[in-house]
TrEMBL record, chains A, B:
Highest taxon, organism lineage: Bacteria
Function as written in the Swiss-Prot or TrEMBL entry: Acts as a magnesium transporter.
Name of this chain's protein: Magnesium transporter MgtE
Entries under InterPro entries matching the protein: CBS_dom (IPR000644), CBS_dom_sf (IPR046342), Mg_transptr_MgtE_intracell_dom (IPR006668), MgtE_N_sf (IPR038076), MgtE_transporter (IPR006669), SLC41_membr_dom (IPR006667), SLC41_membr_dom_sf (IPR036739)
Residues annotated as transmembrane: 286-306, 312-339, 360-381, 387-414, 426-448
Membrane topology of this protein: Multi-pass membrane protein
Pfam families: CBS (PF00571), MgtE (PF01769), MgtE_N (PF03448)
Location of the CBS domain: 140-203, 204-260
Location in or out of the cell: Cell membrane; Membrane
SUPFAM superfamilies assigned: CBS-domain pair, MgtE membrane domain-like, MgtE N-terminal domain-like
CDD domains assigned: CBS_pair_Mg_transporter
UniProt KW keywords: CBS domain, Cell membrane, Magnesium, Membrane, Metal-binding, Transmembrane, Transmembrane helix, Transport
Signal peptide start-end: none
Amino acid sequence: MIKNMSENQIVLQLIKYMKDGKKQSFQGILDELHPYDIARIYENMPEKHHTRFLLFSHPEQIADLVQELDKPMQLELLLKLGIEKSGQVLDLMDNDDLAQLLDGLSSERIEELLSGMKQEESEIVQNMMNYPPETAGRLMTNRFVWIPQHYTVRETVDKLKSFAGFSETINYLYVIDHDKKLVGVVSYRDIILADEHEKIQDIMYSRVISVEAHTDQEEVAQLIERYDFLAIPVVTEEQVLVGIVTVDDIIDVVISEATEDIEKLSASGKSIDFDTSAFVAAYRRLPWLILLLFIGLVSGSIISSFEDTLSMVVALTFFMPLIAGMTGNIGTQSLAVVVRGLITREIDRGVIIRLVFRELKVGLMIGITCGILIFLIAYIWRGDPILGIVVGSSLIMTLIIGTLAGTIIPIILYRFNVDPAVASGPLITTLNDILSLLIYFSIATMFLSKLL
Amino acid sequence: MIKNMSENQIVLQLIKYMKDGKKQSFQGILDELHPYDIARIYENMPEKHHTRFLLFSHPEQIADLVQELDKPMQLELLLKLGIEKSGQVLDLMDNDDLAQLLDGLSSERIEELLSGMKQEESEIVQNMMNYPPETAGRLMTNRFVWIPQHYTVRETVDKLKSFAGFSETINYLYVIDHDKKLVGVVSYRDIILADEHEKIQDIMYSRVISVEAHTDQEEVAQLIERYDFLAIPVVTEEQVLVGIVTVDDIIDVVISEATEDIEKLSASGKSIDFDTSAFVAAYRRLPWLILLLFIGLVSGSIISSFEDTLSMVVALTFFMPLIAGMTGNIGTQSLAVVVRGLITREIDRGVIIRLVFRELKVGLMIGITCGILIFLIAYIWRGDPILGIVVGSSLIMTLIIGTLAGTIIPIILYRFNVDPAVASGPLITTLNDILSLLIYFSIATMFLSKLL
């Protein structure tokens, strides 16, 4: 019925039904919409209609809707519902989404929210919250169907029918033995294609790939990406099946990991987007900049310690930004390769040695090319071959050191599990600034008598 | 049987079966493995066994294997197979993977490869290659099952059984009318739960979300992410169903888009990873660095034009790296926010104006904070309030201009569809270097009489 209606028309129709008290027709429209669209409609509707909107929707519809809102709006909606109805809605929510909602709230607030829920549902969520953040245990859902291995296809279909609407619409059924250990997997398609008297254990696929609940979310994402899975089962150390992680959550993981990498490279601070207010954005970016300002003062004091050299050969100043800038740039390039590489493959000693050696060679090749170039330019521009040699040899050295710094520093931080945000692009750039100035002025001072 | 065997043990076992000529047992093992694992085994096996490996595998197994290899290895494998068997394998490959394989090959090579294929299969691939790169048409597969809307559930199951093994294991069946237009979608689960006499058009979901074949892959990824879809149907302008894009391809899109963003920020050049050779990596990174070297010379000539000011007040040099560096850093921060924002939401005039205005305010707040700080430091360090004022007011101005440059330049490039790699971090940093030096020395020259 609403097939060809625009979003605005749908909103108007829903408001009309609410005014006329037509609950049935209202729910009919919601049933035809995707949760994401319902959430958009709810958000774009004048707030005065919200309470009525919730009154007209049944808990399943609200549970779908609430999962697509952002956190402040979720909390506001639950408040509007009151303890009892919000309990019903929370019971119906996917427990991974619920765990995400609770994450970061005060323990009183969590208790308050969980108090309206069924005992067993709230226990499941509390168990999930016990796993460390960014692990499989935090991402998993318990809305999946498991089948004992001795079931026939017929029995399986019967079980599926009674759990309809409960499980996430994922293609696989997981097969467990009498100890609840994961022993196999079978797809809906296999079920359709099989004869109804066949036993599940005869049609199941038994080399199941699973993850342990403490596995890091990046590793889970790698497995799902690698095998093109739609979901991956989560087990305890004893191989007991406790949940599944679905591919839609993994897309979110991949996006947030990429955003983290970019924050590392730019030190732009956590979660600044187009909607962040100016004050908040400035507040999040400032700490880094102030730190970098103080590191920048180190450059200043290095230069000041070479004040005599400088005042004698002012021309040295002209090449300062070039040398510092180039060193910073080559360091950022190396950093980007390392940061991206660290998430997409496993790192062992061999890989690191090969990489550092490779970057050393890259630094040499680029350094010699640029060094010769700048020697020629400096010589022609200032007519002084010694100045050319000072600038050229400095650039060769600083580029080699710059690329190594951009490679080794993030690896060391990664090895020592330091918050990777520390290995940010600006930090490497600023450190490379300091190194390059030290090298440049040291070489210049060595040649000072010849420069005059 | 191989359930508890390590990868090495499996390799040895396979080699043994090959030596003993036990084709059946060999294939039995392959059948228990995921394509990704078969590919790893093939790669890690000494090359002398490869020909025999392919001889022992049947075309379906090779088709699964080949999709998980990288391009050079794929081409080598097809060469080993010979025209006839490689044609069989190509027929069995998913056409999106095949299109990816052909992408970038010479037209003679493409013709040669396609020559061994069935007419209809090679036509499908050639049609796909006609869509522009990075669109839905290039990503889609035709291995899906469509159902006429007048079918009953029973007829549907029969059709499914006869197409078993052909379709990708995705949860949905797409429903078309007599003009082959997409009219609905139904899941395997719906089929299992429905009565076998029901008509598909009565149980299908008719508000289908689809994409047009020319839709950009980023937009497809956004839709799939937003709606948590496992697949999305692809239609022509006339709504005729031509393929589906599956979530596993979308994960690859999300990863490659993120990598592109990082290349933008670091100008590290396309596709350098841990395995790239030093020479190739240097060759890819050099063009940018040489360009930046010449831009850096502009900084040099700016400084040289202020030679008189500098030689009179050498202390001005001390703050040069700090001012240039801070301006570069704030620009990179803004750039990161913009680059990430441009891919995750639609951009209109209003969004841009709000964003630029926000960044102006951020620049003001950060500029004033850092400016006051550096005024105090310069004053205390050098005991000269005028130097403090010069440095402080310069920093305020350069930080504001730096953040605006980091915001506006990428937006302009994006608007004019310039290759976004141009808006790279180092470029913004280098431009900000030049701007900051101009401002700093202009202000210093204005105050020159008071500084002496």
